[in-house]
Structures are given as C-alpha cells and as structure tokens.
Write the structure tokens for this entry.
Amino acid sequence: MAQFEKTILWLGGAWVGSLNNYTFDKLPIQRLTPHDIQSQPGAIPVLCVIVISIFLIALGQIWYLRLEGRFRRYLAIYAIMAASLLICVAIPSLNLRIHHYILALLLLPGTRMQTRPGLLYQGLLVGLFISGVARWGFDSILQTSAALLGDGQTNSLLPNIAEPITGMANITFGWSLPPSPYDGVSVLVNDVERHRWYYGEGEASYTWSRTQEGGLEKEYFRFGYMIGSAAGDYSKAGVWTTEGNWIPMQPGPSR
C-alpha cells in the first residue's frame, strides 16, 4: 500500500508540474516581474493566494523537520540560499529572475521527508523543473532589463489604422504618419511579418492579396510602430473574413 501511495502522489504531482503550461495555463501570471504583474488583470490576487499557500505548506514542512530533528540543518541551508539571492538582487544593472527550474531547486530540499504531503510536493517540483528546462532551457538567474522583457509588451503607442478598402481578392490598409520617435510601421499577416514601411518610402499604405493556393480563409492583421529595425507593441488582430468583410481590431496591444 505504501508503494502504491508513493506512485500515485509522486507521479501525480510530477504530471501536474511537468504539464504546468496546461494545468496552470488559466492563471493570469506568466512571469514574476513587476511589469508583468501590474499589466495583467487579476495577477496580484492570484499571486497573494500562491504566496499564502507556499507559506502554509512551508509551515507544515517545518513541523515535520522539527519532529525529525533536522530543522536547524535545513534552516542553515535556506539561510545560505536567502543570502545568495540577496547578493544577486544587489548586483547593479541586472535583475533577479526566479525561473521555474530555479524555484524547484530552491524548494526541493524542504520536501525530503517521506510523508504523503512531502511526496506530492516533491513530485510537483520535479515536474516544474522538467517543464522549465524543457521549454526554456537553463536561463540565467541574472538578466538585463532588455533580456527580461523579451517579446513582452513595452507599452508603446499603436498605429492609427484607417478603415481598409476591402474586396474578395485584396485588401488595402492606410495609416497616419507615426509620431516621434517612431519612423515606420510593421504589418503582420497571420502572425508573420509581411511588410515594413518607413518615412520616405512612398504612400503610407499596404495591399494584401489572397493567393489562389490559400483559398478563401480568414486572414488576421496586426500593426506596430517601428524605431529603426525594432518593433514596438502590435495591435490586436483585425480579421478579413471569407466574405470579404473587415472586423476592426479591439483596443490595446496583443498579448
């Protein structure tokens, strides 16, 4: 019976953790950075629930450590970890980034006790480690602000797109000239960049034609300002329907 419980609890937790992109996908938290937390609705309450849950779990694990007489040893280990993280925080021009695999490595020592909750927590953390490394690799714990932002939102302005001229075979977009410091517009069609327009390159417009091979299918268009070769945020998708109608973009940038 004990081996059966170990299998269910440990492997069950590992399954949930390794598939966290599905099991935790609905949580409005993608990265633990101030920018992401503030920009995602509902992220702060969810983060509070997660922190409180981890705190309560930690209290339970501390109780088991005291019963086994290993509390002081583990307290020293976590004190060293905390001091190391504080040193990383103090390094100028770099940001501390707690990745999935790092979080798992930090918390795994506290799950060594052979208890039912400990087995479940250990499997969950091993699953998070596997998922984090498989999806993103061994990313550095210290990153610059630019590297940390990645392809996330920059809160840049969005292009002002006029009502397009539509037909069954082609669609033509026009836009107002970009304000400073932007000098161009990027056009995504079905999430693939198809056109870049810069000052001095003719009319501020773009025409997209349906190919015969592609058939009559919905097409999705997003627009973003350019500064040199770098693009800012893109708009949400506007849709060119199979009937040749245009569904405008909703306000705000794409996620």
Notes: Residues 93 and 144 are 7 Å apart (CA to CA). The mean pLDDT is 84. The radius of gyration is 25 Å.
